């Protein structure tokens, strides 16, 4: 899950950070990739598009996210039943956070302090204060919570439940559910867009993307995909990200081995880009000119040139790459 | 010490919000198991039922957010007991039945006047006849048919170009039915059965099964793989490594086409496996999966229609909008010409998933899943 550049506030943050970096020792942009079946993270140097470091993690690392100041990396070590906190400079695990069982994905609230964690085996979303390292709340959600999103204003956190087939809306003030909206089968990923006025949710088995109006929480549009030469059953949308102007979405289609390019205004699919096998999640580089997708089965990362919409390079990483995050 | 927040059941306008209370009856006819040579694999007494219980929990979780409740009644009829009577009492309280019984008993229940408007899920009988000439409009099948399983194996043999085959079949009716399905699949996919023998461990075989096997298999004609039809798991386990020619085995032993197995871990299956394990304290088996799929089908239909009306549920289940996420990588749906749940068939060994049918390259004009089992054009079912 990538939290960068979702709103102006963060862009300012990035600009500010870039300024700081001028003074600090030069550090290249990196894409960090969790390898689910290797218990490692591969660090890709964006300039050379090569793996420059491989760091050991807990068991079955899946979701990864940096703190907003990039001082630490949070890692869902699912089979270790913990969220690990890593120093990205040394690659050392600093400490663990209580996470509930089987943490799969999470999202960091704009306050940079509260992690909302989907506990896949327990039908619970756990809220952890990363400063006090305590569990603030646990919220009962549907079966197999997975996708996590937070609205830019921090008001709502979304958990999608894969077997209950819902997007659960959590009010971050009260840590209670305020709405539960049905989506198609196996919702995997959620993102707010258009200044937080829309919520998009992908449904892997349904083969669709649902667009909700945040104000009314009503479904506005259902997007479908059709990849030439690929059976519809194998078109399974999972992770997706928006370009800086929020006019275009890139959607990973799982075992269809393609990324769809969707016009976020007209909801038309403009293109399908062939990538590695079972493409799941993705992250942009800092200026969002390049997109890095994790391809689980082929164990590699595809680099897509955003302007030309072409795959330009494949980078071998560990076994079953899952999550991706930018470290500018 | 953790604060668990109270559920707020605020519902959005888009979700189905009607209060619905669904009662499902899980009805089982216990049967006497035939004696087998090995004591290694006892059949769990709660086989099937645990799958239904897990699905009920999942339905209940979803229902909490939608104002829908689910309850399940369970009845076990002892061997030789009066199943129709038990079915009548069940039908007096609900139209939704998950039935675990042999084919004949299933039909006896489906044909009760009280069952005319019921929706019965066959979660136990693999007989192809139930999907063909003996189909019933009130009977859906969450367990794959024998032909679906054997077609899956045949696709694999075609893909590997293991065209020449031999078959050893047992004498139990289940073995014979599975062997018949194998015959059909080999013909359908253009494979050659070059020899066939019946394993009847009688007075002529006075040593242990494993000692008999080399001699027994000596006269089989050249084959790439040896097929075994031993659905009651009597002699089949002693065949591998004891054959005259060194050949792999498949069918009821070795490489087995199954509804479900503990080795399935892709497509989110690991989560289902661990939920089941936690509930039942044993791995999930095919019959558990079939019962799970039946109860989840009901839940999915209730969720999407917002209705507990049996006729409405049946229409939705057989319609184009129904899909069940079955942790086998593809959406599952019901064939609207015979009530069979379309589903992928994993091909497994004890330790790994080898492949999953439909295999790549086996195409179909409507659904690749329909390359497995009876397809619409050849279906003898007229009840739908």
UniProtKB/TrEMBL annotation, chain A:
<dbReference type="InterPro" id="IPR022456">
    <property type="entry name" value="PQQ_b_propeller"/>
</dbReference>
<dbReference type="Pfam" id="PF02239">
    <property type="entry name" value="Cytochrom_D1"/>
</dbReference>
<feature type="signal peptide">
    <location>
        <begin position="1"/>
        <end position="28"/>
    </location>
</feature>
<keyword id="KW-0732">Signal</keyword>
<dbReference type="InterPro" id="IPR015943">
    <property type="entry name" value="WD40/YVTN_repeat-like_dom_sf"/>
</dbReference>
<dbReference type="InterPro" id="IPR011964">
    <property type="entry name" value="YVTN_b-propeller_repeat"/>
</dbReference>
<dbReference type="InterPro" id="IPR011045">
    <property type="entry name" value="N2O_reductase_N"/>
</dbReference>
<dbReference type="InterPro" id="IPR051200">
    <property type="entry name" value="Host-pathogen_enzymatic-act"/>
</dbReference>
<protein>
    <submittedName>
        <fullName>PQQ-dependent catabolism-associated beta-propeller protein</fullName>
    </submittedName>
</protein>
TrEMBL record, chain B:
<dbReference type="InterPro" id="IPR022478">
    <property type="entry name" value="ABC_transptr_sub-bd_PQQ"/>
</dbReference>
<keyword id="KW-0813">Transport</keyword>
<feature type="signal peptide">
    <location>
        <begin position="1"/>
        <end position="18"/>
    </location>
</feature>
<keyword id="KW-0732">Signal</keyword>
<dbReference type="InterPro" id="IPR028082">
    <property type="entry name" value="Peripla_BP_I"/>
</dbReference>
<keyword id="KW-0029">Amino-acid transport</keyword>
<dbReference type="InterPro" id="IPR051010">
    <property type="entry name" value="BCAA_transport"/>
</dbReference>
<protein>
    <submittedName>
        <fullName>Amino acid/amide ABC transporter substrate-binding protein, HAAT family (TC 3.A.1.4.-)</fullName>
    </submittedName>
</protein>
<dbReference type="GO" id="GO:0006865">
    <property type="term" value="P:amino acid transport"/>
</dbReference>
């Amino acid at each position: 899950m990538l939290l960068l550049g979702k709103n102006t506030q963060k862009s300012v943050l990035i600009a500010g950070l870039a300024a700081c970096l001028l003074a600090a020792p030069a550090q290249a942009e990196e894409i960090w990739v969790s390898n689910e079946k290797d218990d490692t993270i591969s660090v890709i140097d964006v300039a050379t598009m090569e793996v420059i470091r491989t760091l050991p993690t807990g068991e079955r690392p899946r979701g990864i996210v940096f703190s907003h100041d990039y001082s630490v990396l949070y890692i869902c070590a699912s089979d270790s039943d913990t969220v690990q906190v890593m120093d990205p400079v040394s690659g050392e695990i600093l400490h663990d956070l209580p996470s509930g069982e089987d943490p799969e994905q999470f999202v960091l609230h704009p306050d940079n302090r509260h992690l909302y964690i989907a506990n896949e085996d327990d039908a619970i979303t756990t809220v952890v204060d990363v400063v006090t390292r305590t569990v603030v709340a646990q919220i009962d959600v549907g079966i197999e919570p997975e996708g996590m999103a937070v609205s830019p204003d921090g008001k709502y956190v979304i958990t999608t439940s894969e077997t209950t087939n819902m997007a659960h809306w959590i009010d971050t003030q009260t840590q209670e559910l305020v709405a539960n909206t049905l989506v198609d089968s196996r919702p995997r990923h959620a993102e707010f867009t258009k200044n937080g006025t829309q919520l998009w949710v992908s449904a892997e088995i349904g083969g669709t993307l649902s667009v909700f109006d945040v104000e009314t929480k009503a479904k506005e549009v259902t997007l479908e995909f059709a990849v030439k030469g690929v059976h519809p059953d194998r078109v399974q949308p999972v992770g997706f990200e928006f370009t800086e102007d929020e006019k275009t979405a890139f959607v990973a289609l799982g075992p269809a081995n393609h990324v769809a390019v969707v016009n976020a205004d007209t909801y038309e699919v403009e293109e399908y880009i062939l990538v590695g096998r079972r493409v799941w999640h993705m992250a942009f580089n800092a200026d969002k000119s390049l997109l890095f997708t994790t391809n689980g089965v082929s164990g590699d990362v595809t680099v897509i040139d955003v302007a030309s919409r072409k795959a330009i390079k494949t980078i071998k990483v560990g076994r079953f790459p899952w999550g991706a995050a930018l470290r500018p | 010490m953790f604060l668990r927040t109270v559920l707020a059941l605020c519902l959005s306008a888009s979700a189905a919000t009607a209060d619905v209370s669904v009662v499902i009856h899980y009805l089982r006819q216990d049967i006497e198991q035939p004696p087998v040579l090995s004591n290694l694999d006892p059949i769990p007494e709660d086989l099937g039922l645990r799958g239904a219980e897990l699905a009920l929990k999942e339905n209940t979780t979803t229902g909490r957010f939608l104002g829908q409740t689910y309850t399940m009644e369970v009845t076990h009829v002892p061997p030789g007991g009066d199943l129709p009577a038990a079915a009548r009492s069940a039908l007096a309280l609900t139209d939704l039945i998950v039935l675990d019984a042999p084919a004949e008993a299933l039909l006896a229940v489906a044909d009760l006047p009280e069952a005319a408007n019921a929706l019965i899920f066959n979660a136990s009988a693999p007989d192809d006849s139930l999907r063909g000439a003996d189909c019933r409009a009130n009977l859906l099948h969450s367990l794959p048919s024998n032909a679906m399983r054997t077609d899956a194996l045949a696709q694999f043999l075609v893909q590997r170009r293991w065209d020449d085959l031999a078959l050893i079949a047992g004498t139990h009716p289940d073995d014979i039915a599975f062997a018949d399905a194998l015959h059909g699949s080999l013909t359908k996919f253009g494979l050659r059965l070059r020899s066939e023998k019946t394993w009847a461990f009688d007075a002529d075989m006075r040593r242990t099964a494993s000692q008999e096997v080399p001699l027994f298999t000596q006269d089989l004609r050249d084959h790439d793989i040896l097929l075994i039809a031993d659905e009651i798991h009597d002699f089949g386990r002693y065949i591998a490594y004891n054959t005259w020619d060194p050949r792999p085995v498949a069918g009821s032993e070795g490489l087995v086409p199954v509804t479900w197995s503990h080795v399935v871990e892709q497509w989110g299956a690991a989560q289902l496996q661990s939920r089941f394990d936690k509930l039942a304290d044993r791995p999930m088996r095919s019959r558990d999966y079939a019962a799970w799929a039946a109860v989840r089908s009901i839940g999915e239909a209730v969720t999407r229609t917002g209705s507990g009306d049996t006729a409405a549920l049946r229409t939705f289940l057989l319609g184009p909008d129904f899909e069940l996420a079955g942790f086998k990588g593809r959406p599952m749906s019901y064939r609207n010409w015979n009530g069979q749940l379309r589903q992928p068939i994993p091909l497994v060994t004890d330790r790994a998933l080898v492949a999953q049918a439909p295999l790549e390259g086996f195409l179909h004009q409507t659904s690749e899943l329909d390359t497995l089992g009876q397809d619409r054009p050849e279906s003898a079912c007229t009840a739908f």
